[in-house]
Prior knowledge:
The structure is a single chain. By secondary structure, this protein is an alpha+beta fold. It has two domains: about 1-40; about 40-245, Nucleoside Triphosphate Pyrophosphohydrolase (Alpha-Beta Complex), CATH 3.90.79. The protein has six helices and ten strands, in the order αββαββββαβββαααβ. The radius of gyration is 20 Å and the shape is globular. The termini are far apart.
Amino acid sequence: MKMLRRGLRNLSNTVRNYSNQANSVSNERQMQELALMNETCILVDPNDKVIGSASKKDSHLVDAYGRVKLHRALSVYLFNSQGDLLLHRRSKHKITYPNLFTNTCCSHPLYNIEEEREEKDQLGIRKAARRKLNQELGTPLNQIQLEDLTYLMRFIYHDSGNGVWGEHELAYMFILQKDVDLNPNPSEIGELRYIKRENFYRDILALDAPLSPWFNIILRNYLQNWWDNLDNLEKCKDHQTIQSFDIK
């Protein structure tokens, strides 16, 4: 009986220690996410002219009228050499849109990083995309060259999210066709998943979480054309028009 009590006590201590460690990791990741909310986004007008800056937090808060500040953003769609598309599930620790499936990488150029404000040939956005692919997916910087990123188009979308946190982005779309190393940051990414072209719609329907609103727009309006023309993306480029979508 004494041995049983001792064993149960040891088991209880082990469970308690594991729980404390898990809570510590969770709290650390939440603190990292809060720190990222202090980064400074680039505010723009509907013509993509820079009009100022705001913290990531203030750039995603929904006001009393359902509005969110329009800011510059980026999305990368990574296809490997087999033509498979890499999706990721956003970490449960994300303040905005946690646990949703979305494209490979989606983020923002930062106002306080001067080189990410460069506009010629989308240099600032490309540098931001390279930085975020490294930070979120763990892809080594030496595996991503700026010229590897094919710029396709821009679009504006507005989504009031959960009424507290939302999105209003002027987003640049990039295709990256390359086999790269992946070591995902758990503060950013909960899961990575490659999707094949021939199984795409079946696999999307089988996902056990919703899609992000921005990925939904691309899925419904552009992705099939991009995927079918990976060998000739010039056909998919539109650098003049800024499309607009209002989700909510």
